[in-house]
Request: fold
Amino acid sequence: MTHPMKADVSVAHVLPPPGSHRLLIKNMVCPQCIQVVGEDLAALGLQVHRVALGEADASTPDGAAPDWAAIRSRLQDAGFVLLEDPRDQLVDRIKTLLVALIHYPPARPAAAQLLRLSGRAPGEGLPLPVALILRFRRPDD
Reply:
């Protein structure tokens, strides 16, 4: 089982299940947040397919449109924000990925492999994602 804070790169992360809605949620920063969001969505009668940092995939049992006002209110009561503006969604996704990279960076072999693939030495004009991984990895990795 992977740690709940690690970035999810599975197919489920790319595409929500058919008939479900991808909810992008601000202020999710820990495993407890994942649990709370999942429980809150289930309490609203939604079928929860997946919950990860910053997002959840859910659908209604009858396939109807979800009650967005109820979802928004329930998440807000728990300290979260349902992101509906595409620009806000993009900014929050970037922040969530950076949190995951900083707190749970890839192991050293993955970083070394990225360097080999790039053909460059550490810090020498690396593409931004590679430079971030190498900059924020832990010394014991």
User: Anything to note?
Assistant: Strands lie at 21-26, 47-52, 55-59, 81-83. The domain at 11-104 is CATH 3.30.70.100 (Alpha-Beta Plaits). Residues 42 and 136 are 36 Å apart (CA to CA).
